[in-house]
Design a protein that fits this description.
Helix 10 crosses helix 11. The termini are far apart. This protein is 38% helix and 18% strand. It is an alpha/beta fold. The protein is globular and about 55 Å long. The chain contains eleven helices and twelve strands. The structure holds 4'-deoxy-4'-aminopyridoxal-5'-phosphate.
Length: 345
């Protein structure tokens, strides 16, 4: 018997993030500086009866905590199982299969995957030579949904305020601004979520150190938020995740800010040390740096043999091969630099 399958899925490979077991793993841009104290407390305090019932639909307490943290009304917030889920739901909420989503190239690799599984056509628009977004190129696609990531993964570079504003002013539809790394950047553009056609997504996976909990959110016009919630359903955030994320957003913002500062100081040292190896880095405003390097995949493989995992990219538009190295406590960065030195020798 041939089991049913969706024809358009046949050529889509399963997205499998690299999870190579290495003593030092700098491949996923998470916060490697520990766990927020409120998270530890909630984990200790949680009792069985709190997990035997469904959480309240659409995570209202978490919405309030996000609203306080971001300074908006709770009606302007939705949450999800990581910002992955919020982004995926946004695509489903606003585009019919066959329609176009546009995004810069390179950007968050999951975008082309989310486009495929939602039956969308992708328009990838190269970043400009100065690594800012190409507003005219994005607008020329005519896409009803324009995705921009700033600071951008994997480059770490940011979109300029002027470019973002011009994009939003002229977009025929919605602009989805992914600020997963906002807490590391000099400037946030969350205020742009007050524009009627903008959704800004954020996550607790990066600066807040809660990637394993899977909590992300979007801020924007309540009408748009309502459509995203239709596409997403009520129970995407687990009850435990909601409790922890709510406590962390309420109590641990100073903890998060101190860890983010640490990551930025380490980024500066890392860039210096890479410079001594003759390696240039792209100007990063995130907790990772991108290092253009011919043969990066082979270099990363040799680093893995030395128990260090960094992310390699091949043939990126306008950049070529590159390594992306996440910031971590200095002993881990030293291990990575040691492995890189041996590899390049
Ligand atoms: N956006 C960007 C730019 C990312 O780099 C990531 C994670 N790598 C995400 C969104 C998704 O993060 P999460 O689902 O953990 O919130």
């Amino acid at each position: 018997m041939s089991l049913p399958s969706r024809a358009s899925y046949r050529d889509i490979p399963l997205y499998s993030p690299s999870k190579v077991k290495c003593g030092v793993d700098l491949s996923d841009n998470t916060n490697l500086f520990g766990m927020p104290p409120a998270a530890e407390r909630i984990l200790r305090e949680t009792v069985a009866s709190q997990v035997s019932r469904y959480p309240v639909g659409y995570a209202p307490e978490l919405k309030q905590a996000v609203a306080r943290y971001t300074g908006v009304d709770p009606s302007r917030v939705t949450t999800g199982c990581g910002s992955d889920d919020v982004i995926d739901s946004t695509l489903r909420a606003f585009l019919e299969p066959g329609e176009v989503i546009a995004f810069p190239d390179p950007t968050f690799v999951m975008m082309s995957y989310f486009a495929k599984v939602n039956g969308l056509r992708s328009a990838a628009v190269p970043l400009k030579a100065d690594l800012d977004i190409d507003v005219d190129g994005l607008l020329a696609t005519g896409a009803k949904l324009l995705y921009v990531c700033s600071p951008n993964n994997p480059t770490g570079t940011v979109a300029s305020r002027a470019a973002l504003e011009r994009l939003i002013d002229n977009a025929p539809g919605i602009v989805l601004l992914d600020e997963a790394y906002a807490e590391f950047a000099r400037e946030s553009h969350l205020d742009l979520a007050s524009r009627p056609n903008v959704l800004v997504t954020r996550t607790l996976s990066k600066a807040f150190g809660l990637a394993g909990l899977r909590v992300g959110y979007a801020v924007g016009n309540p009408t748009l938020i309502n459509e995203v919630e239709k596409a997403r359903g009520p129970y995407k955030v687990t009850g435990l995740s909601e409790r922890i994320a709510t406590a962390v957003l309420s109590e641990d913002v100073p903890w998060m800010k101190a860890r983010a500062e640490e990551a930025l100081a380490i980024r500066a040292r890392l860039v210096d040390e890479l410079g001594k190896l003759g390696l240039k880095t792209l100007p990063s405003e995130a907790n990772f740096v991108m290092v253009p390097l011919t043969g990066a995949p082979a270099v990363a493989e040799r680093m893995r043999q030395r128990d260090v995992n960094v992310r390699a990219f091949q043939g990126l538009k306008g950049i070529g091969d590159a390594l992306r190295i996440g910031c971590a406590p200095w002993n881990q960065i030293e291990a990575a630099l040691g492995a890189l030195r041996e590899t390049l020798r």
